[in-house]
Amino acid sequence: MLYSRLIILLLPHFFQFCSANDAETFKPSTPIICSKNSQCPEEWPCCSPYGECGSGPTCIGGCDPRYSYDEDSCVPLPVLVYPFNAAFHHNFIPNKFQITSNGRYSMENEFTNKLNAKKGTVTGSNLEAMMHHKGFIHHSKYLITKSDREAKEMLYDYNFLYSGNTNIDDESGEILLTMPKYSTGSLIASTHEFLYGKVTVTLKSARSQGVITAIVLMSQVGDEIDFEILGSERYDAQTNWYYQTELDYTKMQKQPISSDSYENYHTYGFDWNEERIIWLIDNRPMRTLFKRDTWDPITGKYKYPQTPARLEIAVWPGGDKDNHPGTIEWAGGLIDWENSPDILEHGQFFAKVKEIHIEPKQNRHFNEIYNCITRKTMQRRFDITELLKTTCGYDHDIEPQFGEDSLEWHCDYIPRVRSLRDSGSSTRSSRGSRLLKKHRPFQFQLGESQSIANDGLSVNVTRLEAIKNDKKRILDFSKIPLPKETDNDSNNHANNFSQSNNLYKRNMNFTDTTQLSGSAKTTLKQWNHIQILIIPLITHILL
User: Fold this and answer.
1) CB distance 105 to 132 below 8 Å
2) Tens digit of pLDDT for each residue in 261-313?
3) Which residue is catalytic, options 128, 224, 275, 359?
4) Is 386 a catalytic residue?
5) CA torsion, points 421, 425, 430, 435, in degrees to nearest 10?
6) Closest to 192 (Cα-Cα) out of 158, 167, 163, 166
7) Is the Cβ–Cβ distance between 336 and 209 less than 8 Å?
8) 153 has catalytic annotation
9) Residue spans of alpha helices (H) in 76-142
10) In sequence order, what are the residues at sequence separation of 6 or more whose Cβ sits closer than 8 angstroms to the Cβ of residue 281?
11) Which of 9, 303, 370, 425 fits 243 for a cystine, CB–CB 3.0-4.6 Å?
């Protein structure tokens, strides 16, 4: 009896110990650095965006194929393809929490927030549940499964990853990127990459010397476009870009912000296409980079960001005492972890994220994706949600390696890693429908005959923008209501094609309408009519 009671008392500590160790099993106890001079070993095959080797989640979240163990280590990542969008809106908070993914979260249907000592934040499993409900999943759980079905659910349930000290403001519904004393901050990132598009992020930045708020488009191979706001310089945003991790700090330019970025919301945006990048603040163009101006005569190529990227938003300690002196100087000096205003008032530094919108643009690879889907489905008409299964990796046999011409697209591969200790090699055999390799890679050349329209867009892209607007008018999914929506203009962005999660689940059961309500059957019928209208339109335009 005594032993039984002792076991009962020790079990919670045992599970806590196991959980803590599971969380670290995808990283070696001593960090292994990966770079152009050192690839990852077979035991820890995947190179993270931060230059450290690992497994499991490291093979999914921005895995760098250049310095990983082999070409199959990194999992081909899901790509958000036009016309689908991804969005977060702080007002999207239903009254009830509903479990939609195999009951992974053992929560009551009636969801009640529990507040911790820091006013207005959510704790424990309630935080995980609320993040789940808003389309966020912890990076260590995303696509880590032995089941294709569960991986497919994750693809359509989650738009964003979170890590570090990410939290939710219980009153406003905003995402809080917090940084408690002596911590490394927090990060959210899009689950899907995209190749060219428009991104906007509305937030209040963090404040105080040495505290950095970053909004970044980052590709697996180091193409980067960013804003960084220093906590001690809140009336300016630093804009920068990099080509495949080639560091050139002379490219940084400061852009003015109209008011204190900590006290007031501002919208930071990137408008990125094949020919130019525009940085925007509060919808005003602040800086433009043209691809034609990035030509490098020594290497004979354009050093322009041109590979699929994901959105990352972070608060991090640029002024931490362990950083390089140059970093500390750039960040405005050392962080005062004891006496800074937000440490004294709230116990942490924080940025508040109000809205996120990611809207991919058309690109020249759409024909390849379309052809892959039609080969797979054996018909020219297909369910438009098939585009949501698009993934992308790199063909190591095509030169130049790790550029846009070496992209390898998949149309029915479900990306996943079987466990925290596996890599993309564990699901290599399921990559059945790769697109045919290009025998003659398309070389993008910007010639004199390629005129630029007055609005800064190429004629071709302008036409595609018109197509996009027409499709938006036809495929107006904002008519499908979200729970507890409010009637204001700011909610228009939260609808649109970000409803693809719900649409996919409806399309999964097209053949079985016996369980559908009358309204659902009506919606299903409308969606079928929409497909009949839109697919011939797409086919006509493309062909």
Assistant:
1) yes
2) 999 999 999 999 999 999 999 999 999 999 999 999 999 999 999 999 999 99
3) 224
4) no
5) 140
6) 158
7) yes
8) no
9) 124-133
10) 237, 255, 256, 257, 258, 266, 267, 268, 269
11) 303
